[in-house]
Amino acid sequence: MANLGATLRGVRKSVGSGAARRTLLNGVDLELGAGTLTAVIGRSGSGKSTLLHLLGGLEPVDEGEIEVAGVRVDRASPAELVELRRHAVGFVFQFFHLLPELTGEENVMLPARLAGDGAIARERARALIDRLGVSDAATRLPGVLSGGEQQRLAVARSLVNEPLLVLADEPTGNLDEESGLAVLQLLRGVADAGQAVLLVTHDAEASALADRVLTLRDGRLIG
Amino acid sequence: MRPLLAGAVARLRRRRGRALLAALGIAAAAAMTGAAVTVSFNLHDGFARSADAAGMPDVIVHFDTRDAALVMGRVRSLPNLAAASYQLEFRSQYVRAPGRVPITSGDLFGTVGMRHGYAIVAGRDLSGRPDEVVVERGLADQWHLRPGERITVGDAAHGGSVLALVVGVAVAPDNVAYPLAAGARIWMPYRTVRRIDTTGTAKSINIALLWVNDRSQLDVTLEQARSAGYGLHGLTIVTREGVGVLIDGAAGIVIALLVAVSLGALAAAGVMVAVSSRAEVQRRLETIGLLRAIGASPRAIAAAAGVEAAAVALPAAALGLVVGWWAADGASARLLEALNQLPRGATLLLPLALSLLAIVALVTAAAAWPTWRACRRPTAAMLRDAELPAGSRSLRLPGGAVGLGIRIALRRPIRTFSTAIVVASSVAVVLLLLALATTLQRLENDPTTIGKNYQLTSHSSVRALPRIRRLPGVADAAQRFSTPVVDSFQLGEAFNLVAYCGNRLAFEDPPLSAGRRATRPGEVEVGQGLATALGLVPGSTLAVQFSDGDEARFRVVGIVRTLDNDGRMAYVRPDREFCTFRGGQTVIKLKDGADLASVTAALNLTGNRPSTVGGVTSRNAQFLGVVAALLRTVAIIDGLVCLYVLAQMLALTALERRTTVGLLRACGADRRQVALLFFGVAATVVVLAAPVAVVAERVVLGPQAAQLAAPYATVSLRAGTAAVLVSLAGLGAIAAGASAWVARRIMSEPVTRLLRDG
User: Fold this and answer.
1) Nearest CA in chain B to A100
2) 20 to 30 Å CA-CA from B714: which of A14, A163, B19, B481?
3) H helix runs in B57-200, sequence order
């Protein structure tokens, strides 16, 4: 793997305190190469989402090293984390999290606008929307779109800043089978286009499309 | 019921931030109420309360110094008389005390009789010893004088002087306090004044204080007093009721404004409490639905919501009321002192306690009622409606964080518009207060504000007028005559008669409120204050008695608004003969842009020593300062209401849109962008509120307040451009500050919690 999207070394993360303290990640090592789709499966509460959050700099790590696009996430300042999320990482969430006030296209453009790339964002957003086959949804508000359309727009949003790493947290968990499959194929396409994709899922279909399938059990990734 | 109450308590503990925010809002509203109650209850019956406490006489009769036996004999013959006291007033006396700047405006009152018409507020009353004095509170405050200290009264070089012991400090509500009044009043035994006033006869007096048995029969007593006053010169009869009308009139404007402002803010706070309660119910709809689904009764759920709200409201409202009372009590006490009135003291506790109950009841009802209504809906509908309403129409609005904020605000139109109305009301009131402050400032410095168009006066003769008019910088000069007179029909009303030789309106132009200008000798324009006192209207006859006993009659042709002498003015047009032979005062009007100092120097060179004309209230700067302080207090509290209203709306939005903020942060938004998002929400409110506020102040509040002041002066209380810009800038700053605060709070939370809680 010549180009690494991200690496984790000896990552530990616990939640709670005192008697309720629970270790979710206990020395996790992982390398995510550009152009690969990695799937992580595991039981509910096993720490899969936490793994994504640590990679995206949404949560601080207790111990270990995390590097994304050459940035040491575990040591990064808040401003560096903002830059990382703007340019190096894209998120896809289970519940889409499209802003109800914005049209499909505006939702897709949102990360680019936040990064100050508003001028070229529209062109890039339109190209992504066309590529993901949701042109009809571009001018409509999320409230009138189907779950599948919303998730495709969410995928487009995660790609608009051309990040090195796409983190997808149960992207098919709220979709029917057909729509879920379509979204997984989209993510496969994203990886084929050269980006590193880390997918957390319960979906068996995902395993079939992934380059690697890892299981998170007792705080460790088993491959 | 008990589990629900326990749940309410647990929720309060868990959501301390939200409970604190709600408490702050209630405290702000309560502070406003506390200030309003303190000011209103202290001022609204201040005169009556103080007059009762002081045992103020029902009638005060002033006359030129006469033999006491003659006056007492006539007074004893009056019907309905309960008691009488007499005084010898000796004005403009020299008063000094160690370490104080001496004054020459001491009004000495030598008292005969047991009742004096004042209330002792420190020390004790006169005991009859010759070297004792009681001083009025105004002088005691100015000089920091206490009972036990000694003052020297009178000037040995011009009559006599006495070194006297201050035994008491008193408040006499029949006049405003020194230095608002020109003279500082000092009461002493009659024979002590006689030692100072060496000009009078052995047993002379010039004031009679009368108390009647039945106030409803006062007119009979007054009628007889006027008859009995035959032969007494300079007779002025003032009733307790008349003094009350005069003194309360001026304070009435302030009271009316403060009460209006306070009620507005109270209504605003009530709306906000209701809106936030509705939002809270909306937020908890799912929980309420679940409680209903597991069998909780609507009554129990609503009661728990009410108890939860009351638990927050009680301490917050109590704190707010104390803060409001504390903020307003000092300023209103100073105003009362200026008016020679007494504060309410402990009796203020009752209205404050009732206010506390009312606020807690309002907050409780505002929480329980919407919860009760929500509980009456089908459970499934509650669970469904807990979601944010889905939009279906895209709005063409600017992009970026601010644009998104605007869209978020418009997504909740009821909340946004109700907040905008509350903010608009508050800003309108602030604009009014700024307009008032500007007017007060102009009243203090600018004589033209109260209808005078001249800047200098000089005690020159008519013959000097042509020479003065030729001086560089002088636009015009005229001879003005002013003399104190009484109404010879009712004898009780003293006023000033003003006459100009030449075009009066070029120099003194109080606005006409009824009738027309006096254009011929025998016609008179009267001030609103005099017209009110004597019931004059255009067409009435004004009978004037001069100090030398001469009498003249004039036909009233116009009523004018003037602040001079509380509006007790009469403007006449004299005949040519009068102008040729009388002295008077020269009034000098400067050209536009003329240098006052140069003209003053030129007048001095010609031997016409000039004086600068202040506004009618220049002597009353302290009073205006007190009123301005009171207005500023209310304005600050009002500004806090604005801040709270916006902050609460933003906090509710932040609470509701946690996922949105979480998502933005996950997509790379920094604190500035999140703050801009909330600024967009606040800006929507501000943009909606600003024009409403300006229009409301200019069309409704300003003209209404000016109407209140109309009997005294024509003042424009429409906020000027500068005031509007300052207020809007302040509002913008408040919006920016509130946005930054909310952004800071939500940025301190982990992104994952925001996404999860949404």
Assistant:
1) B391
2) B481
3) 68-76, 137-143, 190-196
Q: Do B388 and A144 touch (CB under 8 A)?
A: no
Q: Which amino acid would we find at residue B150?
A: R
C-alpha distances out from residue B445 to B477, B512, B516, B620, B662, Å = 21, 23, 29, 11, 57
Cβ-Cβ contacts under 8 Å, A161 against chain B: 668
Strand order of the β-sheet with A165-169 is A89-92, A165-169, A196-200, A37-41, A212-217, A220-222
Q: What is the pLDDT of residue B386?
A: 47
CB burial string A111-132: b at 16+ within 10 A, e below: bbbbbebeeebbebbbebbebb
Inspect the interface and report whether the beta carbons of A102 and B388 lie closer than 8 Å: no
The rounded percent of chain B whose pLDDT value lies above 70 is 80
Q: What is the DSSP letter of B697?
A: I
Q: How far is B305 from chain A (nearest CA, A)?
A: 30
A93 near B CB under 8 A:
yes
Q: Indicate the angle between helix axes A104-114 and A118-131, nearest 10 degrees.
A: 140
Radius of gyration of the CA atoms of chain A, in A: 17
Mean pLDDT of B384-412: 70
Contact (Cβ atoms closer than 8 angstroms) between residue A165 and residue A90: yes
Q: Hey, is the C-beta of B220 within 8 angstroms of any chain A C-beta?
A: no
pLDDT tens, residue by residue, B401-432 = 898 999 999 888 888 888 898 888 888 888 88
Do residues B40 and B262 make contact, with C-beta atoms less than 8 angstroms apart?
A: yes
Tell me whether the omega of the peptide bond preceding residue B179 falls within 30 degrees of 0, making it cis.
yes
SS3 B554: strand
Residue, of B182 and A127, whose pLDDT is higher: A127
Interface predicted TM-score of the whole assembly (ipTM), two decimals: 0.91
Considering only the beta carbons, identify the residue of B391, B662, B755 that sits closest to A143: B391
Q: Which of A51, A97, A106, A159 to mutate to test the interface with B (most CBs of B within 10 A)?
A: A97
User: Hey, is the C-beta of B670 within 8 angstroms of any chain A C-beta?
Assistant: yes
Q: Cβ of A143 and B404 within 8 Å?
A: no
